[in-house]
Amino acid sequence: MKLTRLLTFSCMLLSLMIPQVLLAQKPTGMESPSYYNIGGVLSNNESESHFATVIAHLNFDQQYVPRGTTYYDKTIRIDKNPIKTALNVCKHLISRRVYAVVVSHEPTGDLSPAAVSYTSGFYQIPVIGISSREAAFSDKNIHVSFLRTVPPYYHQADVWLEILSHFGYTKVIIIHSSDTDGRAVLGRFQTTSQTNYDDIDVRATVESIVEFEPKLDSFSSYLMDMKTAQSRVYLLYASQEDAYVIFRDAAIHNMTEYGHIWIVTEQALSANNTPIGIIGLKLNNAENETDHIKDAIYILASAIKEMTVNETITEAPKDCDDSGAIWESGKRLFGYLKTRNIRGETGQVAFDDNGDRMYAEYDVINVHENHSFVKVGSFHYDSEKRKMRLKINDSSITWPGNTGKKPEGIMIPTHLKVLTIEEKPFVYARKLLDDEIDCADDEVVCPHFNISNGNEQEYCCKGYCIDLLKALAQRINFTYDLALSPDGQFGHYQLKNHTTGIGTTVKKEWNGLIGELVAERADLIVAPLTINPERAEFIEFSKPFKYQGITILEKKPSRSSTLVSFLQPFSNTLWILVMVSVHVVALVLYLLDRFSPFGRFKMSSNDGTEEDALNLSSAIWFAWGVLLNSGIGEGTPRSFSARVLGMVWAGFAMIIVASYTANLAAFLVLERPKTKLTGINDARLRNTMENLTCATVKGSSVDMYFRRQVELSNMYRTMEANNYDTAEQAIQDVKDGKLMAFIWDSSRLEYEASKDCELVTAGELFGRSGYGIGLQKGSPWTDAVTLAILDFHESGFMESLDKEWIFHGNVQQCEQFEKTPNTLGLKNMAGVFILVGAGIVGGIGLIIIEVVYKKHQIKKQKKMEIARHAADKWRGTIEKRKTLRASMAMQRQYNVGLNSVSKSVSQNCEKTRYPIMAPLPRTPERAWPKDQEYIVNRKNNNTNKPPPRYMPTYATDVSHLIV
């Protein structure tokens, strides 16, 4: 001991006797300094003396100090007044060109180390803290050049997680003060839990967070809320004074007895009323300031040595009055300090990006009887694996209640809050009417609390999942309160930034049923909840109670037209050719019958009447009559050539009619429309066209499935804009023809297809999965629910639920409907009736036109007859007048002839015609018509009768002779 002191004194004396010439050797040009002043702001004389001794020893350590380099100590006493401390740093340290400052922690003040950090950091002079553990020093925006050889308080959260993993506790309640360090502990716990623990099954989750204001008077109100939680593991960060109040009230409420686990930090462990069984932490070498001083100096020397090899160090600032000077070498020196990783007096010394000590070693302390602290484990650095390890001796632990049996850490509740969602046929929900007091016997009350407006409405639920819930409650013995999903969704996540005490992290924030379970506002989800990786990361799933997949629902294709269904057997081209053929054949028949020598004369029929020859109208009537298989009563061809063409036309008509009849039966009776799509691999879905719209439900498991599948990304981008809020809306749009294809769970779509035979599922199942019961992570009911569901499968209970709620016996009905032919109805044959109606209307229209035209013809004919009658009457009058004048003229001439001597023509004629009357000379015998006949008759008769005196028959014949 004396030898050690003698060596120390000799080193100090040697350092004081160094020639002043060395002091005058300051670096010139681009060379690094040959001496370095190290400042110290320490709490007592012992620390100051040790500081000088360590630097004196350092100068002889060639591993850290190269030849030609010397370190000098410059120390001041820390003051509890931060202003005086800052002034002393400027006056006694910076003015002496210190290259770094080692600062201690004044026992009665917390602000002095911060004052040293502010002052030195302004000039980028590195500051090494050896006792400051507050979370504020981790903020590099404020403490730009501060690092420390002690870990901050919130790093104890790392040890907490290791302890929880060791004991298998996965659900905890965190109690912390509402200051910077308390929030930093919570943030560190949550971030480290998600970052370092990949296995969600062993990851500790926070069930509840209790934040209190420091300097408590009572903690009873918080404890009452904690009693309702499921977890019985409490992680406590509090000061010594606040921990005293918390332990006092916890003992009053019997929350320090068996079944409760308390894991606390160093400050809370120092309370004088810590209950038996508490587990706490204690930092190794936390109060050993001398060891931290030595580690800090050697870390600094290591950094300076490496920096001088790589670059030149400029002189440190010398005056606080020069506010514009920033020491760039000091900024780079701080970077070298953060990369140090050496084995020191306090263990493995290394720093993170914030300059905080890593690899800090802790003792795990257990409180036994008589308030004795017993070390039951350690958290230490494993040099072989180069990481921290936790080692605990479980057999030496005394748990609350002074027992050696480890508690379960949770309280298994028997009354659960169950959530569901309306999804037929699994859950039918109907609103309770105003005049109804309670639901029916097969229904369960399931209120819906609307989170958007805060209203609560009473509903009644029944269905597949409700019967399953009843069976589960009876089998594993629990009671429940059932409620509908607050926002009506199954749940999907969004990535959001969350700010904690140590930075900003990105978290998945869930809504819907999953969000309620993750936030631990529910215990069970009994609904058609698809099991997928995204959800399984945050909640527990039971074994599937129903296996299913994803399929496509579409409406069966309807026929092209109901009004012209009878025209479907032939194409439009064939109909046009038939129409043209009728009239071409009629025209050829007319021409053949017209030009044939045996067809253009009238022929006598048996009844004595004569039949007219075949005209063009009759030929068209004949052609249509043969084609439509109607009897032809008149207008048939009579020539041999026309009749040959008629027989050929009759054969053509027989073939056309027979073909039409056969195809009509195939189109209207036996034809069954097939589905439009072949499945998910249909090219029309992969490259969606404008006339084919497909969709699913937003944020559903199907939506997540399409997000995961890279090969379906093009299809998903198209359908994302068409997605619906609920499945009911999408199914209704499929029925109405607004949506071509709805992609959803096969169980629901098979139910819809069995209920409505107009709907059909297309293709095979894809994305196979199952429906499971959702539970909280680490729920004690997981195993019991899984075993019950497996038993239900074996006993046939699940199959009975399928028959009762999903199929309803309608599958066989639709299959039978598919196999039987269609019955023609008005929908199919409406066009024929419309055609007949059009014919009737057309006939009535034509007869009206004919009647009107006939009346017009009759009127015209009457006018013509009147005119003709008038003309005939006028002509008769004229003829009568002519006859009368002629008779009168003949009479006058006759009378004149009797009285005169001269002979008249009449007299001469009389002599000629009647020669017996007077022996006159012969005159020509053909002076008058028919005179010869008269003479012959007279000779034959040999009568001597004289001729009549007047022959009116010839009066008119001689009128032309009157002059």
TrEMBL record:
Chain positions of site Interaction with the cone snail toxin Con-ikot-ikot: R707
SUPFAM superfamilies: Periplasmic binding protein-like I, Periplasmic binding protein-like II, Voltage-gated potassium channels
GO cellular component: NMDA selective glutamate receptor complex; postsynaptic density; postsynaptic membrane
SMART domains: Lig_chan-Glu_bd (SM00918), PBPe (SM00079)
Pfam families in UniProt: ANF_receptor, CaM_bdg_C0, Lig_chan, Lig_chan-Glu_bd
CDD domains: PBP1_iGluR_NMDA_NR1, PBP2_iGluR_NMDA_Nr1
Keywords from the named record: Calcium, Cell membrane, Disulfide bond, Glycoprotein, Ion channel, Ion transport, Ligand-gated ion channel, Magnesium, Membrane, Phosphoprotein, Postsynaptic cell membrane, Receptor, Signal, Synapse, Transmembrane, Transmembrane helix, Transport
Domain Ionotropic glutamate receptor L-glutamate and glycine-binding: 448-519
Crucial to convey clamshell closure to channel opening, annotated site positions: L677
Transmembrane segments: 574-592, 613-632, 644-670, 829-853
Cysteine pairs bridged by disulfides in the record: C757-C814
GO molecular function: ligand-gated monoatomic ion channel activity; signaling receptor activity
Binding residue positions for L-glutamate: P528, T530, R535, S701, D745
Subcellular location: Cell membrane; Postsynaptic cell membrane; Postsynaptic density
Principal cellular location given in the protein's record: membrane
Residue span, Ionotropic glutamate receptor C-terminal domain: 441-808
One BP annotation, GO: ionotropic glutamate receptor signaling pathway
Record's keyword annotation contains Translocase: no
Keyword Magnesium: yes
Membrane topology reported for the UniProt record: Multi-pass membrane protein
Domain of life, per lineage: Eukaryota
Subunit structure: Forms a heteromeric NMDA channel with Nmdar2.
Main function: NMDA receptor subtype of glutamate-gated ion channels with high calcium permeability and voltage-dependent sensitivity to magnesium. Mediated by glycine. This protein plays a key role in synaptic plasticity, synaptogenesis, excitotoxicity, memory acquisition and learning. It mediates neuronal functions in glutamate neurotransmission. Is involved in the cell surface targeting of NMDA receptors. Plays a role in associative learning and in long-term memory consolidation.
Family: Belongs to the glutamate-gated ion channel (TC 1.A.10.1) family.
Protein name: Glutamate [NMDA] receptor subunit 1
UniProt source species: Anopheles atroparvus (European mosquito)
Lineage: Eukaryota, Metazoa, Ecdysozoa, Arthropoda, Hexapoda
